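Encode chain A's predicted structure.
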Amino acid sequence: MNPIRKWLYDNRKRIMRLVLFIVGIIVLTQLLNYFAKNKQDKTDVNEADKALGYAVMSESPVSDDIKNEISDIIDNFFDYCNKGEIEKAYNMLSSNCKEKVYTSLDVFKRVFYDSNFETNKEHSIQAWVGDTYKVKIYEDMLATGISVQDSLTTENYFTLVEENSEKKLNINGYVKTKEFEDIKGSTDNIEVEILQKDIYVDYEVYRVKVRNISDKDIMLDSKENTKGMYITNDRDVMFTAFSSELNINKLTIDSGAYKTIDIRFNNNYKIDKEIKSITFSQILLDLNDKTKTEKLIIKM
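Encoded structure for chain A:
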């Protein structure tokens, strides 16, 4: 017998114990790194959130029952996704979320499920603002062998809402929709009514109904610069519209006609800051004369 093979055969038990010992050390190291990373992540999040005036889950001034309810709902959503029960996960979304973000089960599958659940995923939940929670999504370490620090981590924002006495989810940064009543303003040439706003984590979308009461075609914004339309909060901070998303045709209202326009504003979600006004500062009154403009401020 070959001397090397003979030595391996004679020492096979010792070699096997050594291999198992090395594997055990590797697994233990990964687990220790996992817990150390989680602890550091939690510390980093705590410090960042404290600086911003937010609270993380472990320090939120809410009862354990509410924390458990929040966790259970989000855990159930991920459980359905990990099991491939896509329709059950989709049915946990609110009506507004389905209308604004995922308009069908197929859209939800293609846009959210397929991009996040190629493999089973784990998640962590941190309180963010009000009923909105930051959810980190990462690989299942036990299933994939990938440590948390090596895992591709994505962030999402989930909001809990009540619908027909049942808790539902708004996801992908969509927070809620706020309806307005009798919020309007006018000049001799134009009437504007604010119908609603869709609130997202990073921006807000205002739906406005514009009526042209002049004898000329007009534009809600002349597009001379990017500061023609803006909202102002109760601290007098101005947030401009993403006016580049609106072409001339969308902004033009024929004489005697009306049009509904969705306008996105660069305003991050904060529950302690109220919007006090919306301003249209460059309403173009004559498409053939860019010098004829007027300003309309509507108080919210």
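The radius of gyration is 27 Å.
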